[in-house]
Amino acid sequence: MTNWSVILNIAKTHLLTKMKSTVTASLGVTFGIGAYITLVSFMTGLNQMLDDLILNQTPHIHLYNEIEPSEDQPVSLYKDLEGAFNVVHSVKPKQSQRKIHNAIPILNYLKKDQGVRGATPQMRTQIFYLSGSIELGGNLTGVDIMEEVRISNFRDYIVSGSPEALRNLENGILLGAGLAKKMSLDIGDRVQVSTVDGGIFPLKIVGIYQSGIADIDNIQSYANLKTVQRISGEAQNYITDINVKLHDISHAPSMAQKLGNQFGIKATDINTANAQFETGSNIRNLITYAVSITLLIVAGFGIYNILNMLIYEKMNDIAILKATGFSGRDVQLIFMSQAIIIGLVGGFLGLLIGFGLSVFIDQLPFNTEALPTITTYPVNMQFRYYMIGILFALLSTFVAGYLPSNKAKKIDPVRIIRGN
Amino acid sequence: MDCVLEARHIDKHFRKPVDFHVLKDISFSVKQGEFASIMGKSGCGKSTLLYILSTMDTDYTGELFINGELITGRSHQTLSRVRNEHIGFVFQFHYLLSEFSVLENVMLPAKKLGARTHREIEMDAREKLEMLNIGYLAEKRASRISGGEKQRVAIARALINNPTILMGDEPTGNLDSYNADNVLQIFKRLKEEQGLSLLVVTHDIDFAKSTDRIIEMEDGRIIKS
C-alpha cells in the first residue's frame, strides 16, 4: 500500500526546486535519445538504399545453366581403379547448352506456385556495339519488359524513355547510360549491334538505362526477348535465365535448393549471392547502436551524479521523512520516480528532436550520378526505433536512479538527526 | 493497564569505535495522559533511549511495548507505520522540509497514513496551526519562517495523526526563553485539554520541573523516576 500521490508530489517538488539540475539531467537523456533516433534512422536509411541498389537488381532466385566441369570424371567411374589416387590434367567444362532445357514449362510451373510473385524469362547474350569503326563489347539481355517492371523496380532505372516504349517497338533497345555517353547517342538514335557470329542489326534507342553501378552501365543494354532471340538466330524457347521473385524473401534458400534438384539446373538464392551486403549492414547497425548506447551511458552517469548530489543535500529531509513514518521503500520510490520522470521527459523530448532531425535530413538534397532515383538523403523512419528509444531512456535512468535511491533507502535517520 | 509506552530491560551497546555499554537494563513506563521528562548529563544515554523508544533505532536487547503491543523485532515497514500512526516527534532542530509550505509540512504524515481524505487532512492541519496560533503562516514556505515558528509547525506536524504519544528531543534546546516557555505551555495545554501523553528529553531544569514526572539518568541507568 504505497501512497503514490504523496510520493510523486514530493518527487515533483524536489525536481521543480532543483530546476537547473533537472534540466541538465533531462538534456543528457534528450541528447542521447535524439542522437540515437537520428543516427538509427539515417543509418538504416542508407543501409536500405545501398541494399536496394544491389538487391533490387538481383532476383530472389536465379535459375541458369552453369558452365562447369563434371564432378565425376570418367576415371572415377571405372571400377578397377576405385580407391586409387587418380590425377586428371586439363579438365574441360562439360559440353552442355547455355539454354535452360524445357524453359517454358518451368516458367509455367513457377507462375502457378503460390509463393511466387513472378517469374521472368531472360536471354543473355554477348554482343558488340558498333560506333563507326569502333567495336565496344557488351551484354544484351532479352527481357519480358512489362513483367520485369511489375516484379522489380526496373522502371526506376530507366532514366529517360519508358518501358512501354520498348514494349511497343520490336526493334527497340534500352541502352546503358555509360554506353550512350561513350557513343554520344540519345533517345531516337539508332545503334548497330553485332552478334558474336557476325550478323549486324540496327536497333532504335527508346530509353536509357542507368543502374548506378558504372561497370554495369558501361556494358549492359536491354531489348525485347523475341528481338534478342531473333538476332542470335535462336528459337522462341531459347531462354538462358529465369528470375524468380517470391512473396517472402526468407523462403529463397530452401526454394532455390528445391528448384535446383527438381529441374537439374543451377539455382542461386539472393542470400548466397549477396552475403557480403548483409555483413555490411550488420556492422553499420552495430556501430549505430554502439554510439547510441555510449551516449546513453554518459547521460546515465549524469543522472546518477545529480541524484547522488540531491540525496546528499536532502539527507535531513530523508531523515525527517523516515522519522515521521515514511518507510525506506517510500524514500527509495521518491528518488526512483524522480529518475524515471527525468527519463520520461528527457526521452520524450529526445524522440521529438530525433524526429525533427530525421525530417530535416530527409529534406536535404542529395544528388549523385550513381543513384538516379535518389534526390534527398535517405531516412528510414520506423515506429519501432521510437519504442526502442523510449525504452532505452527508461532503462538507463532506472539503472542510474536505482543505486542512489537504494542508498537513500538505507540512510539511518538516527545518525542524521544525532549528527546535527 | 493504561500504559501507552513500556520499556523492559533495555540494553544497548555502541560497538564502534570501541564497545561501550550505553544503556543498562532500562525499565520504565509512561501512563496515558502523563507528561514525563528525561533528564541527565550529556552522554548519559537519554537521547539514545529516546530513539529506541521512538522505534527508529532497532539495535538493542530487551522489549518495547507501545499501547500494550510488542514492538521489538517487527519489520522496518511495520515500524514506519507505527511511527506514522502512534508517535509524534519534535526535534531540537526544527526539521521541516524547507521546499514545502508550512501547511504541506503539517499534512505530510497524514497523507502518508492515507486514512482521511485530502480535504479532511487540510481542515485538520489548519485547525492544528490555528490552535498553536500560527494559522497565518499556513501558505508560507517552511524556509521563510523564524525558529520559534518552525518549532511550533513541527509540533503541529507531530500532532496531525493524533498520536498516542508525543516525543521530544530537547524541543526547547534551540529556542530563546520566550519561545521555550511558549512550547512548554503548548505541551501542558495538549496534556490537559486532549489527554496527550508526552515524553521529553531535556537539559533545562526549569522545563523539567514543570512536568508531572522527572526520570533522571546517569551513565546509562535510571537513577530516579
Reconstruct the topology from this structure.
The complex is a heterodimer of chains A (420) and B (225).
Chain A: H1 4-17, H2 19-55, E1 61-64, H3 74-77, H4 103-112, E2 116-131, E3 134-143, H5 145-151, E4 158-161, H6 163-168, E5 172-176, H7 177-182, E6 190-195, E7 200-209, H8 214-217, E8 220-224, H9 225-232, E9 241-246, H10 252-263, E10 266-269, H11 270-273, H12 275-313, H13 315-323, H14 328-363, H15 383-410, H16 413-419
Parallel strand pairs in A: 3-8, 5-7
Antiparallel strand pairs in A: 1-9, 1-10, 2-3, 2-6, 2-9, 4-7, 5-8, 6-7
Helix pairs in contact in A: 1-14, 2-12, 2-14, 2-15, 12-15, 13-16, 14-15
Chain B: E1 3-14, E2 20-31, E3 35-40, H1 46-53, E4 61-66, E5 69-70, H2 76-86, E6 87-90, H3 102-113, H4 118-131, H5 147-159, E7 165-169, H6 177-194, E8 197-201, H7 205-209, E9 213-218, E10 221-224
Parallel strand pairs in B: 3-8, 3-9, 6-7, 7-8
Antiparallel strand pairs in B: 1-2, 1-4, 4-5, 9-10
Protein name (chain B): Lipoprotein-releasing system ATP-binding protein LolD
Pfam family, one (chain B): ABC_tran
InterPro entries (chain B): AAA+_ATPase, ABC_transporter-like_ATP-bd, ABC_transporter-like_CS, MacB-like_ATP-bd, P-loop_NTPase
